[in-house]
Amino acid sequence: MEKPLRVRLHILSPVHIGCDEVYEPTGFVIDKKKARLIAFDPLNFMESLSSEDKQRFAQICMKGDIPSILEIYKFIASKSIEGREIEIASDLLSHYEKVMRLDKSEIKQKLNQFAISRTTYNPYNNTPYIPGSSLKGSLRTAYLSKLARDKGIKNWNSMDNKGLEKNLLGGSFDSDPFCMVKPSDFSPVGNAGTKILYAVNKKKKSGSDAKGPFQILETIKPNAIFEGMININQPVNKIRNPINKLLEFINSVNGENEIIREIGGDSVVKKIKEQFHGKIGSSTFILRIGRHSGAEAVTVEGNRQIKINQGKKPTIFLDHATTIWLASETSKPSNNNGLVPFGWVVLEIL
């Protein structure tokens, strides 16, 4: 077994790793004075209500229809509530106020658009963490891409991704050498704050809006730091090609940063150069993790066949995505200034 690696993840751009949870209407309010989302325990909230308010709130909840969700928002907003404060995008407060003024004909569609997806968190203290599985997926893709380059494998059959991985790794399932790579979950060092941002879809060539609605995501803020371990265990007999020198296989920053520059966004490259000059490839390595890290970050270089939906036109497959998801302070940014890509991190060996 290689010596266990103690590693640190530096968050360079907003990271969202889904946990299949959203902030429920009965569990938060947006404070207008603080411009913060206040997340609270619904049971504690109920205990703070008078008998009359409890009865009124129960009546609203028992309606069980979509308009009653808006009534819940309004009822909670009328109370003084304490809880965990979360920074929000500049446009979210006005968005929240618009939701509170919806009429019945708009409620179903507009409320669906106001769903706020939560990032992975420790349920005991509500702090964010990064699952080892998210890091492992990124490491695996980088490793496969390096193997494909070294072996000169290009344009593999797009319908046989499993065959490509088996060819590169020399095994599958219980003979897959990556089953010996075991990253721990990564816990925050100090305060790792989160911020609720909009995810907007842009066309790579023009920087104009792509089709599809925006999303609202809780993200881990840039400059947060997480620590964990990576163990590479001794391979069992079925594994023919053990994982060696894993970190040397990690890709460097790809061409997406040029796209970010073209459409007016901030450059992750600049931040990397400022913070990790001279260390990339030796003690620090660049990765992308989490939601909206891009189709290129989860496909093997030189063998990408990314499905492109063209509406009424036939679906096509390309070696690159035609759109990119960016983090934004507003749901409909008037220009591309201030938009940043999701999921860039630097892995540092300690």
Q: Which stretches of 5+ consecutive residues score pLDDT under 50?
A: 251-256
Mean pLDDT across the residues is: 79
Our count of domains comes out at 2
**Percent in helix:** 25-40%
Main β sheet profile: 9 strands, mixed
Tally the beta strands.
17
Structural class of the helices, strands and pairings?
A: alpha+beta
**What is the succession of H and E elements?**
EEEEHHHEHHEHHEEEEEHHEEEEEE
Oligomer: single chain
CA-CA gap between termini:
18 Å
* Percentage beta strand: 25-35%
Q: Describe it for me?
A:
The chain has nine helices and 17 strands. It has 350 residues and is an alpha+beta fold. It has two domains: 5-13 and 128-189 and 199-349, no CATH class; 20-119, no CATH class. The strands form three sheets. Strands 2, 3, 4, 5, 6, 9, 10, 15 and 16 form a nine-stranded mixed sheet that branches. The chain is globular, with a radius of gyration of 23 Å. Mean pLDDT is 79; it is low at 251-256.
